[in-house]
Amino acid sequence: MTSHSSASVSRRTFVLASAALLARPAFSAFPAHASAVREYRLTAAPGRVPLVGGEHPETAVWAYNGAVPGPEIRAWQGERLRIVVENKLDEETTVHWHGIRVPNAMDGVPHLTQKPIAPGASFTYEFDVPDAGTYWYHPHQRSFEQVGRGLYGPLIVEEREPIAVDREFYWVLDDWRLQADAQISGDFGNMMDMSHNGRIGNTATVNGRIRETFEVRRGERIRLRLINAANARTFALDFAGHAPRVIAFDGQPVEPHAPAGGRIVLGAAMRADLVIDMTGKPGERFRVSDTFYRGLEYRLLDLVYAAEPLRDSPPDAPVALAPNTMPEPDLKAAERHEVAFGGGMMGGMMTAMMGGRRMDMREMMQNGMAWTVNGVAATGHMLDPFLTLARGRSYLLAMHNDTAWHHPIHLHGHAFRVISRNGQPTRYREWQDTVLLSPRERAEIAFVADNAGDWMFHCHILEHQAAGMMGVIRVA
Ligand code: C2O
Ligand code: CU
Predict the structure, then answer these.
(1) How far apart are the first and last CA of the chain?
(2) Which CATH superfamily includes the segment(s) 167-305?
(3) Closest-lying ligand to the alpha carbon of 135?
(4) Which atom of ligand 1 is nearest to the CA of 434?
(5) Residues near ligand 1 with C-beta < 6 Å?
(6) How far apart are the CA of 144 and the centre of ligand 1, in A?
(7) Which of the listed CATH numbers 3.40.50.150, 2.60.40.420, 1.10.357.140, 1.10.3470.10 matches domain 335-475?
(8) pLDDT value at position 364?
């Protein structure tokens, strides 16, 4: 687990110190001020990692630089990243920088924004990071299998004026469908997963390991960056005995607040930054559980208090983050478009368009399709845009989930404000890049279409995406 210790040193110092500690070569000279370009290398290849631990054999995975999650990519807000990606898999791949507002050609969508990276080949991504926050990277080629086998990693953009905390961590959450021999079940892309909940696993990991405990100290303030890298699972984390405050969703600052119902709900691909004050006593133990699926609650790990307190009570420094750089949508002038999500079992959908032909649900499923955006089931990434937006204008998308399932809907190249749910204005008008729609839920999102190009708009349950719940929005 990444840990940055900074009780008595300034944050800049601790970034340097922890870089040495963690022996991450890219960090050996992490400067406080903008450098020309910050470089990383990612090699996607088969590997083996001790996911389960103990007596269990290592698990064969696909990984970046041999690790799950892949290496932490970190930059200061406003810097430029250059990332050389080498493909040592037996199939094509790409890398998508989820949530970063990159130029279209750097977005990593096969065929739509680049030629996929062939086995043995490499591709260099280079882009500025305009906004601070918690992001992640993953392939966009056959992602239901490539992400599902372990290809993903955290991408963290530091604020220029960080908030004061004692320690900072990320937890990349995932769930795996493992067999008794600790190997990944090979049933990727089966129609049962595709047409229902997606590939829900049986083994949850935090930063690529089953964790039993996480050590904390009384009186310390922790910033915890949560990243849901699972194919399909929604997590709802409950920190018993603690009162976490959400300070960012999907990397974007939000007014600090206690999450509704006390749980942090993250659909696939979503992130949240939390500030948690450690108010327990030395030696105490508290359970962190995932309570999203009724009847399937489980303990993720225990927070365990060290014998030595850090201080008597947590600091009361402000925790609000400075805003990022997205332009504010003009809601009065915004052009409104309806987007309907359909399909799936128990959805009542009768027919859909696929490859220019009308099909019924049975015929669709024989073709591996189960879901639609505005009545169309998408095949592949080379799609005619279902919406064309004028660059620089404000838009409001009124989305309806006409299905019996949850869908975390992601827009590339932009962040949007979630302005209402089921007709009620949202309290925080949160900026996000992925919004979780409950069954039958309606939500309105608004943004300025300021990034030119063809952008994917899709469900981040990767089986739903592969089975048609995907479309392209053009900004021209
Ligand atoms: Cu996280 Cu289209 O992807
Ligand atoms: Cu979905």
Answers:
(1) 43
(2) Cupredoxins -  blue copper proteins (2.60.40.420)
(3) 1
(4) 1
(5) 96, 98, 138, 140, 269, 410, 412, 456, 458, 460
(6) 11
(7) 2.60.40.420
(8) 87
Instruction: Tell me the residue type at 340.
Output: A
DSSP string, 249-310: ETTEEEEEEPPGGGEEEE-TT-EEEEEEE--S-TT-EEEEEE--STT--EEEEEEEE-SS-S
Q: Token digits for 22?
A: 């963690």
Q: What is the pTM of this model?
A: 0.92
Task: Please give the distance, rounded to the nearest whole angstrom, from the Cα atom of residue 412 to the centre of ligand 1.
Answer: 7
The series of mean pLDDT values per 10 residues for the chain, 476 residues long, is: 33 27 32 74 98 95 98 96 98 98 98 98 98 98 98 97 95 97 97 95 96 96 98 98 98 97 97 97 97 94 97 92 97 98 80 86 88 91 92 98 96 98 98 98 98 98 97 97
CA of 406 to the centre of ligand 2 (A): 6
> Tokens standing for 344?
């799936």
According to the CATH classification, is domain 37-158 in 2.60.40.420? Answer: yes
